[in-house]
Amino acid sequence: MKFNARDIDMLHGSLWDKIILFALPLALTGVMQQLLNAADVFTLGKFVGKNAMAAVGNNISMVGLIVSLMMGLSLGANVVIAQNIGAKRIDRAHAAVSTAFVLSIAAGIFFCLLGELLVEPIFYFLEVPASVVDMAESYLRIFLLGLPAISLYNFQAAIFRSKGDTRTPLIALTFAGGVNILLNLLFVLQFDLGIAGVAAATTLANFFSAIILFAELLKADGVIKLHLNALLVDKEELFEIIRIGLPAGVQGMVFSLSNLLIQAAINSLGADAMAASAAAFTIEINVFCVVNGFGQAATTFVGQNYGAGNFLRCRRATWVSMGLSALFMQTLCFFILFFAEEVLALFNSDPEVIRLGVIRLWYIVLPELINVVMEGLSGALRGYGISLTPAVITLICVCGTRVVWVFTMFRNIPTYSTLMAVYPISWFITMIFLIAAYSYHMKRLKPARA
Q1: Which DSSP state fits 13?
Q2: Closest among 402, 401, 403, 392 to 437, alpha carbons compared
Q3: Of residues 158, 105, 130, 2, the one with CA closest to residue 54
Q4: Contact 291/368 with Cβ under 8 angstroms?
Q5: Roughly how many angstroms between the first and final C-alpha of the chain, as a whole number?
Q6: Which stretch of 11-20, 115-124, 323-332 has the lowest confidence by average pLDDT?
């Protein structure tokens, strides 16, 4: 099979160096995606005010809910194409690429329309304070117009990653991040558009990144090349993408759904708590990007080797990915916690916002090692095509624990610290069940589809 300079041969040779080459650009891609959000929070916190900053923070969970589903579906495309490449089913891989591209456009348009319809009911459920509700709605409605671009970018990035190329999506998003920052400053400082200008800048940047990857797919070599004159939806590949991707998307949505509930509780504590959470989230999510990058490395390496029938290499890839994830994650956590106050002050200088932000970072960043295990095992299971199990476990353990906690412990002790404690507790319970599920499935593995 032909490889270009950015592809990684996942089927042969050492694993640790190739996993690093795959995962680090992927982690940096996640960081760049968060930079789009961080640029919004930073611009609003410095030049508009903490209410505008709180309005964006209020939308994080809502946006994450929809984007998580689209990212999960795109992960299904990653696994299906990777398994076909590993098994040398080139015609099926071509069909999966075409199917994924068409699905990305349809999903993006559908969720854009659905999101616009749900804005008011969601804000009513979240009990968004009157001081920020108009700004929050303005931001979200403009942001939702960019969902087709977000969907297209994620599916196209998944296509590149299925062959080991994580650098091309990173390059596209780096350019988009620069465009977003420049437009933020232009729309806010020059044209005084406030929160609407920030939302418009992010939306345009999302389209920019999608267009770059689209152009790269058109001129790509080999199995992932996109042929617009031969686009088709292959029913078998579509079923596999949805079978694997939909549960993965639901798993991501469960986190966002539970975070919507937590966001409602944060809103009840006032604008300072909302602004602190928005700022802390833009920091802590970068740690998760590292963990998620190695988790997706496990998915793709396992996917290709499972397609090739190399079960031993699948298991080795899983454990190497988790070990490297822990190493890089712990290093990043040290610097974040050591400089927590200084970094939070970049977003907002209000002492109370900084104090609450530090509390959140300690509760969420310190126990990230639990997430290493969760993402590693979930990623490996998806590589084998087992996507429903981690989704169900996440639904029950994460969502269930957080619902019970908010309506019991937080109701009795309504403090910010009490609320933040639910994150590590729900992660730990989920990890225990995922370890048991992984052991169960490893004893019953069957060969990949012919």
Answers
A1: S
A2: 392
A3: 130
A4: yes
A5: 19
A6: 115-124
How far is CA 410 from each of CA 165, 406, 421, rounded to the nearest angstrom? 45, 5, 10
Task: Tell me how far apart the alpha carbons of residues 333 and 336 are, in angstroms, rounded to a whole number.
Answer: 5
Please tell me the distance from the alpha carbon of residue 381 to that of residue 448, in angstroms, as a whole number.
13
Contacts of 345 (CB under 8 A, 6+ apart): 354
Answer left, alpha or beta for residue 447, where phi above 0 means left and psi between -120 and 50 means alpha. Answer: beta
Structure tokens at 64: 């994450």
Provide the sign of the torsion angle of the four alpha carbons 70, 398, 386, 86, taken in this order: positive
Residue, of 149 and 177, whose pLDDT is higher:
149
For residue 3, pLDDT over 70 is answered with no
pTM for the predicted model, two decimal places: 0.80
E runs forming strands in 297-355: none
Contact 245, 99 (CB under 8 A): no
Q: How many helices and strands, by DSSP H and E, does the chain display? A: 18, 0
- The DSSP element (H or E) to which 248 belongs, if any, is helix 235-267
User: pLDDT band for position 419 (50/70/90)?
Assistant: very high
CA distance 222 to 364: 42
What distance in Å separates the CA atoms of residue 116 and residue 111, rounded to the nearest whole number? 8
Residues 135, 123: Cα–Cα separation, whole Å? 12
- Residue whose entry in the numeric block shows the structure tokens 């410095």: 46
Q: Which residue has the tokens 């070599």?
A: 221
CA distances (Å), origin 337, targets 229, 358, 366 = 52, 8, 8
Distance CA 430, CA 419 (A): 18
Question: What is d(CA 126, CA 349) in angstroms, rounded to the nearest whole number?
Answer: 26
Dihedrals phi, psi of 168, to nearest 5 degrees: -60, -45
DSSP code of residue 186: I
Q: Count how many residues are written for the chain.
A: 450
DSSP 190: I
Rounded to an integer, what distance in angstroms lies between the CA atom of residue 214 and that of residue 263? Answer: 35
Per residue in 357-408, pLDDT tens? 999 999 999 999 999 999 999 999 999 999 999 989 988 998 899 989 999 9
* Secondary structure (DSSP) of 348-369: ---HHHHHHHHHHHHHHHTTHH
- Rounded CA-CA distance 234/403 in Å is 40
